[in-house]
User: Fold these one by one.
Assistant:
Number 1:
Amino acid sequence: MSRLANKPLVLPKGVTLQVHPDFMEVKGPKKTVKIKLHPEIIVTSEGSNVFVKSEKGNQKVLLGTVWANLRNTFVGVSEGFKRHLVLVGVGYRVQIQGHKLNLTLGFSHPVVYDLPKEVTAESPSQTEIVLSSHDNQLLGQVAAEIREWRMPECYKGKGIKFLGEVIHLKEVKKK
């Protein structure tokens, strides 16, 4: 059983929670999200505290997951999540055209990536991408799919990496 699920979740300011029998509705300044509940998980709200409980012993393994998903939803609808990607390499650049990313990554053709409607992208410079969304899981998935086009390699350090990620360069072979 999760130790975190024993602690109450605190609703951020501006976020409201409505618990229905089979789903919850979380409203915040950025988005309104509906979360489907497992039938044996009980979510109760007392003021600004939210408690996650289970009366059956075999469903206690889900408590930590439900608790973490709720916390991520509260943060997502109030503040949102961001992922920063950096393109490292000669000629690597990005252009944002509506909900499409036009990436030049050293291939013979440009790579066009269609963003989901819940994810927005900004490009402060030609080699940076800032992705933002209310859904942390979807945001991580999109960042991983973009990064998959050119993973950072260990000899020159070229590729798409997360901001702050350190690529340890290997030494080339010597004769």
Number 2:
Amino acid sequence: MYPSYCLEVNGDYACFTRPEMKVERVSYDIMTPSAARAVFECILWKPAIRWVIEKIEVLRPIRWISVRRNEIGCVIPNRNIETAIRAGRGRLGIFIEDERQQRAGLFLRDVAYRIHAHFEMTDKKGESDHPMKFSEMFVRRAKNGQCINQPYLGCREFAADFHLIEDTAKAETVIDETRPLGWMLYDIDFSNLDVPKPMFFNAKLIKGALSVPHPESQEVKR
């Protein structure tokens, strides 16, 4: 068994996008396991480990905000990239004014979560890779506020502040709310790179806490 770690994250806005919404950005009610995993990976990521989320606790009431923002309505075509690679030159830019689109989004505001997770060793570990080494690295980085990339809450423009919780008994209390959240995106399975598969689980908020099953559990559907 690997030790469990606890991070508290908060931010002004968050958007954990529902994949069934094709055009408008609509967030899940709370943070998803994949978004929580990304926060831990921003602090420490190595091929030798993988982060497994255990529980997500909601510390502030669930509030919403509707925002209309500008987005780009296209991507650079693959053929343009291939041509530029072969020729050594080419036009790869996008003129924003021609491709600008306004889209509405239903986001969360004034959010705070407490995330519990542990890491597991992968088959890419080397002879010198030991759980204690990675444990000390993570604790040291989390205590000092160090990160590889700035952690974010679903979308990269929604930056998150974080700090390590070492004594959960003295931590902030969670909201007193219990209700079903329905099928929620768990993560993306990249075991087959040609055909990545989304993973879902039936989420339920119980007294402000979401218990997250292990990725190999039968509760997680692919």
Number 3:
Amino acid sequence: MALRDFFQRHAARFEKGGPHQKWGALYRAAWMFLYSPGRVNSGRTHVRDGMDLKRIMIFVWLAAVPATVMGVYNIGLQANSALAVLGQGGIEGWRGLFIQLLGSYNPQSIWDNLIHGAAYFLPVYIVTLVVGGFWEILFASMRGKEINEGFLVTSILFALTLPPTIPLWQVALGISFGVVMAKEVFGGTGRNFLNPALAGRAFLYFAYPAQISGDAVWTAVDGYTGATPLAMAASPSAMDGVSGASPVGDTIASSSEAIESIGVSWLDAFLGFLPGAMGETSTLAILIGAVFLLYTRIASWRIMLGMLLGMIGLVTLFNLFGSDANPIAALPAHWHFVTGGFAFGMVFMATDPVSASMTNSGKWGYGVLIGVLAILIRVVNPAYPEGTMLAILFANLAAPLIDYVVVRANIRRRLQRNAS
């Protein structure tokens, strides 16, 4: 109660005309984060809904917690396993000091894996919060509006799409581009037509591809290279049955030549024991978040199912026709689902209520479009085996057109019905 009284006692200072009015947006952001607003509707007739923007964003953030925890554990597991393979006893620098103070480098220890993973995830997330929060506060103060809770979700999703080894200055640059160029210049939350987290990651991918792609960025150990299963399935060596060098996972047992070289089992890929982006590896953890989002009716099941059906449909066609030069064309749908960022994009990115289609029929088409484009990019473009990010951004651009077509079709049907 003392903290609440402190906020209420100094509220007038941050209102219009007060000595600290320019910091009013920051004051209201802290108040809204800690407490429910004290404002109530006036008048005898109004609609009241407990699911406001603040609660929606908190629920999405909570849905991402399983993927975050599993991602942190997997970062440490991959790093500790690689250190054991290389015969190294640890790492140097401030991260090494952090790990030595709280744990060790035993890949069999859950605690050691979590500490090692936290040494890489927490700095990325903190930089994302600080830099992105700075831009949010700056634009809110310039416009004289409240700081929106939408950045709470953007920050966690952006961090989870990055490799653990990414330089922190690139993290700051990427989230700045996502928040400023993909959201604030269009008016802020609710007015952006692109997903800010994906826009920031796409900027980093095309501006600094060496730090966000390739075989050396997914395992947080200097000098160690470990390709993701999706990249290995797309490589020419997959046709020759060459085994991978992942320190974790059993040798795959599959009749498909395109995935025999992956080096991990499907169960390892489903659980998340493989190299990859910090929050995209564990399909199980992502699906736990999906169940929560669907139960709370925050995410659209039409978009998720449409994306899944689009992926399965095109993958089936590629599997039927095959390709002598492209091994990933033979990769089955159940492998596409657990590799790369498909599941993460389906649950957290494609279902963004601002940048996705708004109409129910449009959500089906929007989801199918993403699923088809993601597989098309994966299979047809040999230089870019992961297509989910670009597919969602392209669908964001097409979403207004999809809704326009659906609305016009509904109007025509009503006019015809009334005319008859």
